[in-house]
Design brief:
single chain; mainly alpha; two-stranded antiparallel ribbon; flat; transmembrane helix; transmembrane; ABC/ECF_trnsptr_transmembrane
């Protein structure tokens, strides 16, 4: 029987790039500032610049394109489907925002395809997609423990920060367990391919998820006992081995982030329309 191959490539990858040398706090602020910029703008020009800069940073991280190519294709497919559903639910949304109507293809009801609708859907789709590269940059270049240390440095209780670290650290392990259990079940004749009916496929997937859940709970129990034996949580504060000191490069990046956000807020405040529409 042919088995399905699943690869989990979305995790920390130490490639020694300049982005890896930055402090975890800097990268976290960069990520949050990027998301803030995306959420506050509907200017397609700014969104396109963010996408170009994001993929430039992704290339600077030195992570092979093949590592995140499947996720990029999947994300793009989901966003295209989302745009289709947006058109089906509110076909005249673009016309309302742009304040004009240029019909390209006349259709029944309100489902005529207009230039305004296409521009609106393009802007919203690229707006969501612009967060994709910076999210990968953050995940690829920030070690889970370093990220937790950064959260604690920013004021998040270290217990919560450590939970985040454990989640990010063991997510690839859970995925490996899923693949191993899936292969073991397929060797026993459990088929989850398209060759079987949907209900049968769901039942067979449950045969994989059951052992996966129990193995994950067993791992969590072992980790919990180990942390309890070492006195984790007794003190109000703790130190972090992986916490990096702030460097000149970090402060320069923070200045650039603050400057770009300031310009973005000024542009958003001065804009007369929510969407930039050149036609």
């Amino acid at each position: 029987m042919k088995t399905n191959k699943i690869k989990f490539g979305i995790s920390y990858a130490n490639t020694g790039s300049p982005l890896h040398a930055l402090n975890g706090i800097t990268k976290f602020i960069l990520f949050m500032g990027w998301v803030t910029m995306v959420l506050t703008t509907f200017d397609l020009r700014i969104i396109c610049v963010l996408i170009l800069v994001g993929f430039s940073l992704l290339k600077l991280s030195r992570v092979p394109f093949a590592t995140y190519k499947p996720l990029m294709i999947g994300t793009a497919s989901v966003l295209v489907m989302n745009a289709l559903f947006m058109f089906l639910i509110a076909p005249q949304q673009g016309v309302e925002y742009m304040g004009s109507e240029t019909v390209l293809i006349a259709m029944a009801g309100n489902y005529s395809i207009t230039t305004e609708t296409l521009f609106y859907l393009l802007t919203v789709t690229l707006k969501y997609f612009s967060m994709f590269p910076i999210a990968l940059v953050f995940v690829f270049t920030t070690h889970p423990t370093e990220f937790s240390a950064s959260l604690n440095k920013l004021g998040v209780p270290y217990r919560i920060a450590y939970v985040v670290s454990l989640t990010l650290r063991y997510l690839p392990e859970v995925t490996k367990d899923f693949v191993n259990i899936m292969h073991a079940q397929q060797a026993r004749g459990v088929d989850i391919s398209k060759n079987v009916p949907v209900l049968t496929r769901i039942k067979n997937v449950a045969k994989i998820l059951g052992p996966l859940i129990f193995s994950s709970l067993d791992r969590a129990d072992v980790i919990s006992n180990a942390m309890t034996l070492r006195g984790f949580g007794r003190n109000k504060k703790r130190s972090w081995y992986s916490l990096k000191p702030m460097t000149k490069a970090d402060y320069m990046v923070l200045i650039v982030i603050a400057s770009v956000l300031t310009l973005g807020f000024i542009n958003r405040y001065q804009s007369e329309q929510l969407f930039w529409y050149p036609f």
